[in-house]
Amino acid sequence: GEHEREQVAGAAEDGGDVVRRERAENARHARAHRRASERAMTEYQHLVSLVEQALTGSDRASSDQAPEGAAAVDKRADNCSLRNELKRFKQRSAQLEGHLRKTQFFDANTSVS
Questions:
Q1: Which of 13, 32, 47, 112 could make an SS bond with 26 (beta carbons 3.0 to 4.6 A apart)?
Q2: What phi, psi does 77 have (nearest 5°)?
Q3: For the segment 41-65, what is each residue's pLDDT rounded down to a tens digit?
Q4: Residue 113 DSSP code
Q5: What is the dihedral sign for C-alpha 58, 39, 36, 27?
Q6: CB-based contact 65:75 (threshold 8 Å)
Q7: 44 contact partners, CB below 8 Å, separation of at least 6
Q8: pLDDT recorded at residue 111
Q9: CA distance between the termini of the chain
Q10: Helices (H), strands (E): how many in the chain?
Q11: Concatenated DSSP letters of 45-79
Q12: 79, 63 Cβ separation under 8 angstroms
């Protein structure tokens, strides 16, 4: 009778509390994941910048020395190799950055509110 209806109503309220707590926990987890992704992205961009500076600085320093003869041929080959590595690095970093941005977009749109 009446007592059973009260128990059912109480159980429904408890179930609602559980669902709300789960949603709040999922939202908290999504925010924490998003912050961690943003930190990783910032650190990665900083690393890209440092590597680019090192590679372009190395390229400039080696071209300033301007050796002659066979050494010049070797130096040009080294410079070409550095430029190719820098190009590959930039391509890979752009691919990874695009992937991270898609992941962040996905996480932002799938968080439970």
A1: 112
A2: -65, -40
A3: 888 889 888 888 887 776 565 555 5
A4: -
A5: negative
A6: yes
A7: 93, 96, 97, 100
A8: 46
A9: 37
A10: 2, 0
A11: HHHHHHHHHHHHHHHHHHHHH---THHHHHHHHHH
A12: yes
